[in-house]
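Protocol step 4 of 5: obtain the predicted structure for the target chain.
Materials: sequence only (see below). No template structures provided, no constraints applied. The aim of this step is simply to have a reference model before the mutagenesis design in step 5. Sequence pasted as it appears in the construct record:
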Amino acid sequence: MKRRFRLLGSLLLACSMCLSTPAVAFAEEGIAAEAAIDADVQAAEDEEIIPEEEDAAKDITEETEAAESTAISEEEALLDEESSAELLPLMETEEDLEYCPEPLAVEPAEDQNADTEQMYAMPGSCSNEEWEMLRLVNKERLSKGLQPLSTFDDLQASCDIREPEIAQLFSHTRPDGSACYTALTGTAKDYGIAGENIAAGNRAPAATFEQWMNSTGHRENMLRDGFSHMGVGYRHVPTALYRYYWVQMFLGGCTPTDIKVQNTSDSTELTGSYGASIDSMELVLEVTCDHGVSYLPLMKEMCSGYDAEKVGTQQRIKVTYAGVSTYFNLKIPTAVTYRTHVQTHGWLKWTSNGKENGTTGESKRLEAIEIKLEGQPVDGDIEYRTHVQTYGWRGWSKNGAKSGTEGESKRLEAIQIRLTGDMEKKFDIYYRVHSQTFGWLDWAKNGDPAGTEGYAKRLESIQIQLVEKGHNAPGKTDVPFKKPSLQYKTHVQTYGWQNWAKEGDMSGTEGKSKRLEAIQIELTGDMAEKYDIYYQVHAQTYGWMGWAKNGEKAGTAGYAKRLEGIKIQLVEKGGSAPGKTDNAFIEKEPVK
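Step 4 output (structure tokens):
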């Protein structure tokens, strides 16, 4: 059916500086013909609604953001006592057009990125940003007791049409002079009411959402009870004036007939995570309606019968949307839960099954940890111990007891975790840590150490995961733990013997013109058990001296002789030295 519309209210091009800006409302001509606008008034409005781009560009400021809002409403055209409070008075004189400001947009910040990481599971026709915007709007609607909105492919395609258009002409009028709703394509053309919001200048969905929420007209569109669908368009146009462009297209007059949680059936069972909310599961609800199948993020307010701490038993969760209900099955497996005590933050909340606990990018040390099992199907304990600054390896703790310290400002440097009893036979326990300087190390398992020893590096975060026996590790297992296998120190002119340095660290001086005079080298850890390390130096005046080994001194002290060369060789434990070992080091007795 062809639809014709008349203008019921004034068009104000709203922005973050115009918090009371109303929306444009359209209604079908046949519904309330008595309120039709005279042709000359309509022409005056059209002239004012489409500002020259050149004039609009003059209104750019660094403190304002662009947004436009329009609503096309068949219901609003009834002008009954209840709905009239939401509608603008009918414009009757050209003088009223003076209250239509041109669009104002913030100039985009240089550090805004064109792309964003995936924030939510979403259907293929939505980008990350678009799906997140739909989630934000629905979260707000649910908090107000309103039905959340869904989108569908033809509505998303309509938004895709509008994206480049508003970058070309930032207006509800299309570049060809037609109204914005003429961009609706396919099944999106069939609606009872419709509306549009546009905005520019912000990349982040949350920032743009706030931009719209701070404008009366846009907020009313997002919270209008009569709407059932909302499509979202986002586009980055580097060469356009505001670079980041957003559009929301709303439709109403549609009633759902069936709903389903995507990829579920009565015979399927989803796997949950201990303590996780429905929102964090990133599930999609499919809605069957007059437009075919639409979709939206499934949110906790739409669900009942879910217990985030009920482990090991199938849960049948009810979903209700617009008076229609469905069910899906979910089971939370046996969980390992854990929390850490973090410098300045104190104890963090419990997390489970591979989730990160701690911080990264804040340079905060872990000081203690507690670990326990939830819903274990067989007997057994979880045991763990930590390597603590100053104290070294502590004794084993288990089943939620603390390992580490509180109030002593001591960093955790490494950890070991293991299962016992039948749990050890049924599961492997994997864990990995984020270590100062080294970042995320690989996964350790079943009592192997994770972290560092001998480097004085703090643990900053941890992940722990239960895996059924024989199943694959969560990731790489190559280097879960670092411990220096080699250390050395040097005797330096003026300063004497320096402290021990470890693999890759410098021993000596730089930029001070100080000579090395002697050296000690030794292996540590497993290497020390398997090998001897021999080294021989060439000293000024003395030439090549004898071979020293395993931390013995090589060179001179007190003779002011520089080292000029060195040889180093690994030999299997107990093997023969590479050469003579006498006179490896000589030292002048200090004058008394």
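Step 4 remarks: The radius of gyration is 35 Å. DSSP finds eight helices and 39 strands in the chain.
Proceed to step 5.
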